[in-house]
UniProtKB/TrEMBL annotation:
Orn/DAP/Arg decarboxylase 2 C-terminal domain sequence ranges: 199-287
EC number: 4.1.1.96
Record protein name field: Carboxynorspermidine/carboxyspermidine decarboxylase
Family, per entry: Belongs to the Orn/Lys/Arg decarboxylase class-II family. NspC subfamily.
EC category: lyase
Keywords: Decarboxylase, Lyase, Pyridoxal phosphate, Spermidine biosynthesis
Coiled coil: none
Reactions accelerated catalytically: carboxynorspermidine + H(+) = norspermidine + CO2; carboxyspermidine + H(+) = spermidine + CO2
Cofactor entry: pyridoxal 5'-phosphate
Any GO BP annotation: lysine biosynthetic process via diaminopimelate
Matches recorded under Pfam families: Orn_DAP_Arg_deC (PF00278)
Keyword presence, Lyase: yes
InterPro entries for this protein: Ala_racemase/Decarboxylase_C, De-COase2_C, Nsp_de-COase, PLP-binding_barrel
Organism of origin: Mariprofundus micogutta
Amino acid sequence: MWSTFDLIKAYLPGCTASSLYELKLGDEKFGRENHIYSAAYREDEFDEISNLAGHIIFNSIAQWQQFGEIAQAAGVSCGLRVNPGISEVETDLYNPCFSGSRLGVLPEHLKSAELSGIEGLHVHALCENMADSSVALIDAFEEKFAAYIPGLKWVNFGGGHLMTHADYDVDKLIDRIKLFKARWSKQVYLEPGGAIGWRTGPLIASVLDIVPTDELPVAILDISATAHMPDVLEMPYRPAITGSGKADEKPHTYRLGGTSCLAGDVIGDYSFDEELEVGSRLVFEDMIHYTMVKTTMFNGVRHPDIGIWHTDDTFELVRSFSYEDFRNRLS
């Protein structure tokens, strides 16, 4: 949500992108240090990437060999993503180190590689993890890649450090990074994207209809799991709704569904203190992650407006979506 970048710039010195388009957005709207990592780069985009990025991180030795000279000629600091082989994330969809992962170079594949010109190593193995996992990541990196650290200028410990969570022990992370820097004298980067957006972005939905079935009554909402919150189906996970409970925990239980034609466009079963009716509003909490950036216009389902609720209790409408947005994505 680049409309909040002026606020975020007070806390972060730059951005890390995963594609040319994200890199261009960071350059245009954030305007500070600009890094990029991608599982693979396209030849027809790489010159533009090299002109925009300060750091380029390669996912494989082959990609480094293919593009490294171009990046270095542009004055870019080049790095490799490595895989520490730890599993601190329970769900494989979000676990960069699950068995057979395509993300990062394994220690055994690094031994025979020509690394002249590589200035940094990037290790990303977390997703919304607490401080013990952050420390475990740094420990594993030192254990498996210590031989390469003296020749580096920087190390990037990636994202997934949920340092804004109330229970995250920030001092533990700080102490571990200080120890690393004292031992190796290297620049250390973190990419706390999830921590920046933690507990933000409520999605407000309204009930359009309540359909009786042979099981639970289904409340049809003006949002869609498949179009607006695909991780509900992909992970899957259960989003929190303010004032709700699990099925049968409160007096009135409903299955919540979306408006698309997909039979499985179902968010889950929730219970409420009061009966739902057409027009009832539900507040889905902490929805900024992987919602706006992963939405689709499947079935032409209308997208929610995007706005900012300011600390002075005023609302700023940032973006409304129209039929033209749907039409122009099609051919």
